[in-house]
Amino acid sequence: MQAYTVYNQSGGQGKTTVARDLAAAHAEIGQRVLLIDMDAQNGSLSNYLGVDDNKRNPEADDLTFHLVEQGQGEFSDLIRTAEPNVDVLPSHKRLNRVDEFLDSHENYIGQTKPDDWEYPRYERLLSVLRDNDVPNEYDVVIIDPNAKADTVYYMALYATRNVVIPAVPTRSGYESIDGVADSAQGFAENQDINIGRTAVIPTMVDTRKGDHKDYAQKLRDEYDAPVYFKSLSAFESAEEQYVSVFRLFSEHRSRIRKSEQNILPKYRTLVATICATFGNPLAEDAWDGEEIFTGDDFWGTSKFHLQTLMSLMTQSIKPWG
Predict the structure, then answer these.
(1) pLDDT over 60 (residue 235)
(2) Are the beta carbons of 88 and 118 closer than 8 angstroms?
(3) Do strands 86-89 and 80-83 pair parallel, antiparallel, or not at all (unpaired)?
(4) Cβ-count burial of 137 within 10 angstroms (0-12 exposed, 13-18 middle, 19+ buried)?
(5) CB-based contacts of 45-48 (< 8 A; 24+ apart in sequence)
(6) Where are the beta strands (DSSP E) in the chain?
(7) Degrees (nearest 5) of the Cα angle 210, 175, 15?
(8) Three-class secondary structure of residue 168 per DSSP
(9) CATH topology of domain 2-311
(10) Are 189 and 143 a contacting pair, CB within 8 Å?
(11) In the prediction, which pLDDT does 320 show?
(12) What residue segments make up the domains of the chain, in order of their start?
């Protein structure tokens, strides 16, 4: 199973859109995907895909209860199917109080533990996923936490050990990557685990702006960003329809505008790159050459061309330096 967290501690970087549409790209080639929404805000991933109807229901079961062994039903009953091969574990407002629940859980089970026992707070999400056979049920798990370096984020990191970082090509977006690196590296050292930078993705790029062009190319050159995404109305239209951009084009649009024609190829190239980075290269017939992004006048010829993506057998997760 491939697992990664889509994260940037700076808001407005496009992380939820990226998580949603990466899931659809994985699903397009038959991979079973579980999206885990760990953002209690209203406009989170669950809302983007129209499965947040229980978010404010105080009687509803949710992940928070299962993290502290108080689930009100089966874990599988929490999961909703949003699109073919894409399931969602929705978020709930209760997740805002996750530290309170975890503190109570620690106090309860700590009564029977030795004095030097340490509560495995950040391991709780991984334990729940393993206990409910998620690694065998799904090929890909993508977690979308809120834009805070808090307990929820660190549980996501512990469970996935990999981060995909979307960043708007501005000074603050560029510098935010160091913030992600600092939080991930510090946490990894504290927990004695390895956390890799799986991909950096320039988002909401406006190639008419000089600073956007400069920072997008810096992201490409310094972080091997395989693709970039422009700020296009298609992403907003997908949100309005509660679907991924893949489903938007297949079911809600009669034609794809010229400016939008590279959106799906870029997501396919990004997924192929991620799979290769995990050491799980896609079969050569997953997509044909016309279905992936190999570069354009702005980006240049992508080194992540079809032959590289489909034949690469192993590639370690990228270091932070």
Answers:
(1) yes
(2) no
(3) antiparallel
(4) middle
(5) 45/16, 45/19, 45/20, 45/88, 45/91, 45/144, 46/88, 46/90, 46/91, 47/242, 48/16, 48/17, 48/20, 48/238, 48/239, 48/242
(6) 2-6, 33-38, 80-83, 86-89, 140-145, 162-167, 196-202, 295-296, 300-301
(7) 90
(8) coil
(9) Rossmann fold (3.40.50)
(10) no
(11) 44
(12) 2-311
Give the angle subtended at the CA of 224 by the CAs of 220 and 227, to the nearest 5°: 60
Distance (Å, rounded) from C-alpha 274 to C-alpha 33? 14
Q: Which residues contact 188 (CB under 8 A, 6 or more apart)?
A: 157, 194, 195
Question: Read out DSSP for 185-234?
Answer: HHHHHHHT---EEEEEEE-SB-TTSHHHHHHHHHHHHHH------B--HH
Q: pLDDT digit string (tens) for 111-132? A: 999 999 999 999 999 999 999 9
Locate 41 and state its tokens. Answer: 């805000």
pLDDT tens, position by position, 59-103? 999 999 999 999 999 999 999 999 999 999 999 999 999 999 999
Quick one: pLDDT band at residue 162, thresholds 50, 70, 90?
very high
The proportion of the chain whose per-residue pLDDT surpasses 70, expressed as a percent, equals: 94
**For 4-20, how does the pLDDT look when each residue is reduced to its tens digit (9 = 90+)?**
999 999 888 899 999 99
Alpha-carbon torsion (139, 180, 153, 121), positive or negative? positive
